[in-house]
Amino acid sequence: MDESPLAAHILNAALAAAHKAGDTVRGSTSPNPPVGAVLVTATGEICGIGATEPPGERHAEIVAVEHAGAAARGAHAVVTLEPCNHFGRTGPCAQALIDAGVASVHYVHADPNAIAAGGAEKLRAAGIPVFHLGAAGPDEGEIHNDELRPWLHATAMGRVHVTLKFAQSVDGFSAAIDGSSQWITGTAARERVHLDRSKRDAIIIGTGTALADNPSLTARYTTEAGETAWYQQQPQRVVIGAADLTECSNLQRLGYAQYSDIPTALTALWEQGCRDVLVEGGPKLLSSFVAQGYADAVQAYIAPLLLGQGRSVLESAVGESLAEGMRLQISDVEILGGDVLLTMVPGRTPENRQQ
Q: What is the pLDDT of residue 2?
């Protein structure tokens, strides 16, 4: 394959813009992926930016082409996912790039969806150079923390991608002996939680949490005027368990779905078009997700706080030895005020080493 016509710094800038575009719309595109696309001139000027619109509307490449207008001809396309090659509710993006007269196409992830794949081959057949930027696929140990990871894994698995989220003290407790848990983490961490909620298809809790906390499960932020507002994108509210939730006034007011068990909930959410869900349940529900093999990512908000005793993050042991525990790989670290957010994915157990 010929060397890319784009200089490394131009390609990196275009990639950053494409990833940002995809992350901006994450949570609004399911069951489609939150793709970002950028058109850039040979001199490095971005002439078109696009992101996937809600289902039935334009895909990222088409938005970018229309944004660029006449400048699209001869420009280089940088896309976070291989352009699709099928007719669905919209036309194939590969053909749109051909018609626009782009000079080359660079994409990050190969499309794991067999129905939509084949865009790279179609582009090459039309004489357009295509460059796969080498990101590993979902079954090849890829832990890059980008906006497409949940969708890629969901598509490969045929079920929704599940992220388990919890807040804890540095010594591993989610609540003190007296049961108090608000607030282990500070304002910046709580703001980050709400931003993350706005990018998920659904939030899942158990009936125990619903009855104890009467949560609203909305995605909120504080305006410059100091008022509370809702993000435009709101996740579905889901509760697992058989208990009567009549007394949960916030859920009754806002609406929610209730399922008897985890597999039933995940199957229903997949059929509804959800691909990326966040579990915010208590120790019992989190342990159930781990035990049943539904832990695709973990978000641990860690406060610099020592409790010594209290309520553990999980209700039951994952295993009886270190070898039987769930080994995780860190994919991202964020400092949020005085707290730390570790984003992790299941990883291979490392080789035993002498201490």
A: 56
